[in-house]
Write a structure and sequence with these properties.
This protein is mainly alpha-helical. It has one domain. The protein contains 12 helices and 2 strands. It has a two-stranded antiparallel ribbon with strand order 1-2.
Length: 297
């Protein structure tokens, strides 16, 4: 198998593992006091929950798979493939609950994965490098800080479903950046070994990872998994792909007009499908039985 093929397999495995981790973490986070949202105390409270600890361990395994995939493939290939986790997360999230995933959720979920398949095969994304100038990194960070800050501010006082969606969007933005930082750090490890820790990338990666993790858990705490995961699942690859293109010179390999149109249409389908999932009854709590979802201890 080529490096790209292995990267695809690892990315799909990471998507499933992230989905399982998200379900476990959300079940525990939803029981945490609302006043702990976006505070380090939330993580302190969650550490006391075995279900959350198991989910966090699974989450670490998912990150390992993602990092291995990024070491072999381009960001613009790997990050979109993580969206496949949605197909697993929605049914997993209903285990033990009265709410069930119906055609209302499955149709956009399948459309989302179908659009992804067209994007990867027809669009033929790839290429690029693993490093960029410090100025480019700073401009990228500043550019992302604006939507992240606005989303966090808008989440204050919002309804549970909207709050979960906004915080998940912010987490997705951070995770798109951490994907680029992970690829850059892995490249440094491959060339400099222990000398990598003389560079700034690994330290910023840890800092960004902590911020993204706190936003992620706060989103899980705020509402049902279907409110947060779709938003995070699409924001992460979109932001990651934009960074891959602008910072690392990755590109869509398709050059024929028809292929370019199909690739653009696939991106639109992915976005529309995600928005549709975000408006499902599982998210908006239009089903009375979803008003109070039991959590696993």
């Amino acid at each position: 198998m080529s490096d790209t093929s292995i990267a695809i397999v690892l990315a799909i495995a990471a998507g499933f593992t992230y989905a399982l981790a998200s379900v476990l973490q959300q079940r525990a986070a939803s029981e945490a006091p609302p006043e702990l949202s976006l505070r380090p105390g939330l993580l302190v409270a969650l550490v006391k929950r075995p279900m959350w600890l198991i989910g966090t361990a699974v989450d670490g395994g998912a990150y390992f798979l993602e990092a291995a995939s990024l070491a072999l493939g381009s960001i613009i290939i790997v990050q979109p493939l993580l969206v496949t986790g949605l197909l697993w997360a929605l049914p997993l999230a209903t285990i033990g609950n009265t709410g069930k995933v119906t055609r209302r959720e499955w149709v956009p979920a399948i459309a989302l994965v179908g659009g992804l398949a067209v994007f990867v095969t027809v669009g033929d994304p790839g290429g690029g490098r693993s490093q960029a100038s410090l100025l480019a990194w700073v401009l990228t960070a500043v550019g992302l800080a604006v939507p992240i800050t606005l989303a966090v501010l808008a989440a204050r006082g919002a309804s549970p479903g909207r709050r979960a969606l906004l915080l998940a969007f912010a987490a997705g933005c951070v995770y798109g950046l951490t994907a680029a930082l992970t690829k850059s750090t892995l490249d440094l490890l491959g060339h400099d070994g222990w000398g990598t820790f003389a560079h700034w990338q690994p330290y910023v990666l840890v800092g960004a990872g902590v911020i993204g993790f706190l936003l992620n858990q706060s989103a899980f705490q705020a509402g049902h998994l279907a409110a947060s995961l779709p938003a995070m699942a699409i924001t992460d690859p979109v932001v990651g792909s934009v960074i891959g293109i602008t910072l690392f010179g990755e590109a869509i390999g398709a050059t024929q007009p028809l292929a370019l149109v199909a690739t653009g249409a696939a991106v639109v389908v992915m976005i529309v499908a995600t928005l549709s999932l975000a408006r499902s009854p599982l998210v908006t709590h239009e089903l009375d039985e979803l008003e109070q979802l039991p959590a696993l201890e």
